[in-house]
């Protein structure tokens, strides 16, 4: 009968669940013995990549970004994403930038063609595009903060071009983009409200 193999240098081996002192070849100290948070009688060396909760194989949920516990796997992505100061600034910049671009494109279209039925769909798309830009820039964070940024950026898209047009007269007729109680003005207000709602919904 052959003798049991000798332990590797610097590595102590013992049975899990009996106060084992796990030590790897390159470790300078013992590793903590973990017990599954859901099944305390099961030893494990795996933690949830999100909250750090110890997990046994039966409690592991394999996600795209690592192993998670049941609770974290059920959480919406927005609850795991933090709106840092950097993401906040990026979301504001992306929202205002997208709003400026699509706003001028929208009013250029109106000055060239005038109000028509599909203008509702084009303008409603402004809300979606601005909202999407804010979502992506914020790291797909969803909440009141990004929803507010998206709404303000959408209003920016509708208000900036006519205000500039009235000052520098770059070719967009004020009669086309008027915000008043006239027929066109009311339509533009309605379109702007729809776009703002879509931008808000995209970030909530």
Keywords, please?
2 domains, 204 residues, two-stranded antiparallel sheet, elongated
Question: Would you kindly provide a written description of the structure presented here, covering whatever features stand out?
Answer:
By secondary structure, the protein is mainly alpha-helical. It folds into 2 domains: 13-75, no CATH class; 82-203, no CATH class. Helices cover 50% and strands 7% of the residues. The protein has 6 helices and 6 strands; from the N terminus they run E-E-E-E-E-E-H-H-H-H-H-H. It has helices spanning 70-74, 77-80, 85-113, 119-137, 144-168, 183-203, and strands spanning 34-35, 43-44, 46-47, 54-55, 61-63, 66-68. The strands form 3 sheets. A two-stranded antiparallel ribbon has the order 1-2. It has a two-stranded antiparallel sheet with strand order 3-4. Strand 3 and strand 4 form a beta hairpin. It is elongated, with a radius of gyration of 29 Å. Residues 4-27 have low confidence and may be disordered.
């Amino acid at each position: 009968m052959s003798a049991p193999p000798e332990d590797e240098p610097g590595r102590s081996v013992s049975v899990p669940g009996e106060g084992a002192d796990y030590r790897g070849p390159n470790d300078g100290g013992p590793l903590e013995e973990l017990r599954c948070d859901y099944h305390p009688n099961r030893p494990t060396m795996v933690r949830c990549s999100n909250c750090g909760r110890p997990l046994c194989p039966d409690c592991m949920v394999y996600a795209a970004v690592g192993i998670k516990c049941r609770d974290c796997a059920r959480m919406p992505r927005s609850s795991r994403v933090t709106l840092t100061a950097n993401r906040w600034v990026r979301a504001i910049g992306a929202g205002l930038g997208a709003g400026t671009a699509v706003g001028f494109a929208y009013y250029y279209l109106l000055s060239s063609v005038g109000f028509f039925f599909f203008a509702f769909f084009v303008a409603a798309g402004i809300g979606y595009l601005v909202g999407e830009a804010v979502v992506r820039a914020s790291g797909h964070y969803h909440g009141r903060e990004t929803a507010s940024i998206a709404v303000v950026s959408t209003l920016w898209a509708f208000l900036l071009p006519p205000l500039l047009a009235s000052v520098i007269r770059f070719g967009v007729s004020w009669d086309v983009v008027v915000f008043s109680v006239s027929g066109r003005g009311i339509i533009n207000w309605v379109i702007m409200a729809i776009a703002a709602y879509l931008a808000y919904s995209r970030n909530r």
